[in-house]
């Protein structure tokens, strides 16, 4: 039977060391680096909430406490703001329903598959989402759904397992998980017949990469159990998912929106500029500034 149990839980792997952003990430988790005025993790949590997900599970590690504090109540701050008659609206999105934030630790960085497996007891026996905060997925300007919401809608249609995909140039494929696409189900929804993590360019089965959003059935936890290391010597989520193809439905969703690779410095700058150019409170000034800099 195809599972269509509702998606209530999301796992956020946030234990990574963020070495690409050193020295900025020496004492601050990379997930707390802001795109304008919201830390990266906030965008991912907002995306999950928009999709109707209630429980946020952070797989953290040493030095990542500020991520959890970000979603806590900051009593002194709120009291002071109240006394000064300041609007609390900016803090609205940092408030989770009490009890809906859970953290587990990944003591050793053994790979994405291992990080997800660390959340097995909290996920339990229900389907769940995964959001990689480095991949910033932003809805189109016309106000369409966010990536996870679009995936939850597709899940309602086909059930089983889903991943988000997007096209990338050939030379980038060996940095990602790449899918072998099967039959097209509907606009933006395709069957997946194979998955390979960080293939050599000549072995890549398509130019469609996994872009950091997943809806998976709980059986993936059992597949991850005792799984051997794969690409880069890490326990890969992609390898576990590949094993499930054939026994469970597996589909890919092409997000009708924009993706910024905030795991890279250039991607981070691009996201900052793109979002600043859309914000009512700053877009005119930012546009003038960008033109001035380019003209200079
Ligand atoms: C991970 C996944 C990979 C996916 C990528 C998206 O790789 O293993 O399949 O394409 O995220 O960003 P990582 O970035 O951890 O190397």
How would you characterize this protein structure?
With 296 residues, the chain is an alpha/beta fold. The protein has two domains: 9-263, Spore Coat Polysaccharide Biosynthesis Protein SpsA, Chain A; 264-296, no CATH class. Helix content is 29%, strand content 25%. The protein has ten helices and 13 strands. Strands 5-4-1-6-11-8-12-10-9 form a nine-stranded mixed sheet. A hairpin with a 2-residue loop joins strand 9 (177-186) and strand 10. The longest helix has 13 residues, at 283-295. The radius of gyration is 19 Å and the shape is globular. The protein starts with 8 loop residues before the first strand and ends with a helix. The mean pLDDT is 94. The site of 1-O-phosphono-alpha-D-glucopyranose has 14 residues, from strand 11 and helix 8.
């Amino acid at each position: 039977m195809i599972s269509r149990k509702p998606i209530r839980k999301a796992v956020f792997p946030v234990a990574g060391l963020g070495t690409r952003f050193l020295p900025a990430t020496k004492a601050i988790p990379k997930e707390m680096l802001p795109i304008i005025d919201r830390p990266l993790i906030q965008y991912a949590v907002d995306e999950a909430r928009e999709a109707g997900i209630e429980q946020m599970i952070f797989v953290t590690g040493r030095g990542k406490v500020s991520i959890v504090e970000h979603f806590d109540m900051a009593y002194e701050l709120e009291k002071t703001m109240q006394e000064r008659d300041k609007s609390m609206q900016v803090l609205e999105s940092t408030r989770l329903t009490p009890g809906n934030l859970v953290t587990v630790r990944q003591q050793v960085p053994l790979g994405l598959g291992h990080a997800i497996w660390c959340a097995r007891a909290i996920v339990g026996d229900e389907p769940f989402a995964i959001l990689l905060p480095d991949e910033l997925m932003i809805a189109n300007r016309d106000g369409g759904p966010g990536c996870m919401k679009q995936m939850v809608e597709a899940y309602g249609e086909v059930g089983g397992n889903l991943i988000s995909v997007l096209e990338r140039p050939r030379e980038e494929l060996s940095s990602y998980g790449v899918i072998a696409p099967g039959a097209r189900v509907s606009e933006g929804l395709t069957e997946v017949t194979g998955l390979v993590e960080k293939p050599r360019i000549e072995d890549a089965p398509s130019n469609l990469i996994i872009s950091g959003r997943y809806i998976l059935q709980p059986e993936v936890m059992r597949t991850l159990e005792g799984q051997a290391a794969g690409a880069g010597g890490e326990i890969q989520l992609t390898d576990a998912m590949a094993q499930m193809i054939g026994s469970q439905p597996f589909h890919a969703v092409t997000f009708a929106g924009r993706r910024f690779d905030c795991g890279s410095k250039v991607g981070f700058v691009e996201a900052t500029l793109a979002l600043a150019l859309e914000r009512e409170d700053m877009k005119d000034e930012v546009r003038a500034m960008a033109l001035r800099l380019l003209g200079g």
